[in-house]
Amino acid sequence: MTLWVHETRLLLRSRLAGIALVLLAVFSAAAVTAGMAEVARQRAAIAAIAPAQAEDIAAVAAYIDREKDAGSAAYYSFHPTWDAPAPLAFAAIGMRDVAPYILRVRALGLEAQIYDGDTFNPELALPGRFDFAFVLVFLAPLFAIALFHDLTSGEREAGRARMLEAMPGARRLWLRRGLVRFALLLAALAVPFVIGAILSGVAADTMLLIVAVAALYLLFWIGLAGIVSRFGRGSTANAATLAGLWLVLVLVVPTLANVVINRAIPVDEGSRIALAQRENVHRAWEIPREETMRRFYARHPEWADSAPLPVAFHYKWYFAFHQNGDDSVAPQVRAYRAGLERRAAVATAIGWALPSVGVQALLTRLARTDLAAQLAYQDRIRAFHRRLRDFYYGYMFRDRPFGREDFAKAPTFAAS
Question: pTM to 2 decimals?
Fold first, then answer.
């Protein structure tokens, strides 16, 4: 134990080592704090939905109750959906930084509502929000390089290497020094994360898994430093070589891989789906109403026994051509989603070869902030929209009056 304490003290006497460990701990703590603040902000925004929705619906109900028109109720009523952050989301904000986690939808065509302001461009490992995942993937390797690039070369340059190697138990000496540096690095990185995870209610097994992943990622860079040091060059040359490897493995190759994937698997932007849906909707004003209803009833025969359209405007025609607009872009939606999933699958496969990509992908998966989580949220929106549409159609296509008391019967979104 005395030898371990001695090695720790010896390491901490080095100004570079001390500054590096303190700086890594500060970065980790700042990233955890920033992540927790962002998640708290998102939770507060979600918590504010219920009172705002009640106020909004009350105003709409007061207006609708005069005419009791179900079409007007469906047109003017917005219904909130939300994707609550998982406990681990503070550590890897992922797509929650760019994709909506709250979306208010109407019973009108859904695809334009989902893809307005589309932000889906899944990335492999490009720098994003300053969170724990960013510190682990991008910054921690630099601190590992700072502490391990001169582990043996520093002793050679100081003229002590031969004497140390001649001592009994020389291998244990180098192993002990390496383990002390590794343990302090891991502690500086993981202790703030563990504190944040406990405060956020992260499960113990998930917490331990993240710490284990962080340890393995540090060991990868420590192993690289060991390989580079075997060439017997000076500390400065070792540091430059390792910095070059960091640049290539963490920034250059993942960025190039991202470009290659995007070109190999072309995916149209979601905004094009929204535009195509809107064009089909607007075209309905120029074609006979009977043709619109024929197309609608062909795809939705459960409403085909509805009374014929009156001469005056009727909302069931309006909602029918919005539904036709959604149906017309359904193949594009499927192709778009399939392309995104193929890109994500290739990126995951690349993660097995590139630790920086793999670690970031694993953290966002565990935090439920990756593309799969966002697509799952979209699936919940679509399921809710189907219930919402059927609810209002039951009034519109059966010509049933819709009064103030009927607003309370509308479906509500259930977060997973």
Answer: 0.90
Mean of pLDDT over the chain:
89
Distance CA 183, CA 50 (A): 47
The answer to whether residues 205 and 187 touch, using CB atoms and an 8 Å cutoff, is no
Residue 154, pLDDT score: 47
Contacts of 38-46 with CB under 8 Å at 24 or more apart are 38/90, 38/93, 38/97, 38/129, 38/131, 39/85, 39/89, 39/90, 39/93, 39/200, 42/85, 42/96, 42/101, 43/84, 43/85, 45/102, 46/82, 46/84, 46/101, 46/102
Instruction: Identify whether the C-beta of residue 146 lies closer than 8 Å to the C-beta of residue 188.
Output: no
Specify the range with the lowest mean pLDDT, choosing from 2-6, 121-125, 217-221, 330-334.
121-125
Range with the poorest average pLDDT among 88-102, 213-227, 270-284: 270-284
Q: How many other C-beta atoms can be found within 10 angstroms of the C-beta atom of residue 72?
A: 16
pLDDT band at residue 171 under the 50/70/90 scheme: low
Rounded distance between C-alpha atoms, residue 284 and residue 286, angstroms: 5
Q: How many other CB atoms are found less than 10 A from the CB of residue 142?
A: 16
Tell me phi and psi for residue 152, to 5 degrees: -105, -35
Structure tokens that stand for 335 in this block? 């192709």
Q: Which long-range contacts (CB under 8 A, 24 or more apart) does 97-101 make?
A: 97/38, 97/128, 97/129, 99/374, 101/42, 101/46, 101/377
CA angle 352, 27, 6 (to 5 degrees): 90
Average pLDDT over residues 377-389: 96
Contact in structure between 411 and 391 (CB atoms under 8 Å): yes
Residue 412 has pLDDT above 50, yes or no: yes
As a whole number of Å, the CA-based R_g of the chain is 29
Q: Is the CB of residue 65 less than 8 Å from the CB of residue 404?
A: yes
Average pLDDT in the 206-229 region? Answer: 95
pLDDT tens-digit map of 234-260 = 778 888 999 999 999 999 999 999 999
The DSSP output letter for 251 is: I
Q: Which whole number is the average pLDDT over 300-324?
A: 94
| Rounded Cα–Cα distance for residues 295 and 324 (Å) | 7
Dist. CA 215–CA 187, nearest whole Å: 10
DSSP at 409:
G
